[in-house]
Fold this sequence. Notes:
Elements: H1 19-40, H2 44-72, H3 77-99, H4 109-146
Helix pairs in contact: 1-2, 2-3, 3-4
The structure holds fe (ii) ion (FE2) (2 copies).
The site of one fe (ii) ion (FE2) has 6 residues, from helix 3 and helix 4.
Amino acid sequence: MTLRSSGTAHEAFTALGVPAVDRQHRVIAERWRLLARAGAEGDGARVRTNLWFLRAYFAEHFATEEAIMAEAGYPGLPRHARLHADLLVRLEALQVAHTAGTDPWGRGEFACLLDWVRTHIDEQDALMGRFLQAQQRIAASRGAGTG
Length: 147
Ligand SMILES: [Fe+2]
Ligand SMILES: [Fe+2]
């Protein structure tokens, strides 16, 4: 079951067993918690700081995942990368809205986006994680067979 969030409750994201990716997901969850708190308190400066951090960090995180998928020959990479690009566009739209002085927080867009991120991790990132783990098991059994 996919956990749904109000945008203010911040359960950690599901761990995938891919250490580099899980570490980055923890940074994202923590930063989203700070963003949510700033939004709830109406602190525009802290919303800006955390939103700008997240936009940059997501770009780095997606590059990490896409490099791992490319290296592993993951067949779902093109679709997965398109979803990443969509999220970056949506984050940029929030940056524009924030800069323009409209209130994306009040319209629930952050909570909606957090649901998107959680669903992406639970579905797309989890598929990637299972593929990588299966690949590791195959490599380990080949190693055992030849050793
Ligand atoms: Fe991810
Ligand atoms: Fe992803």
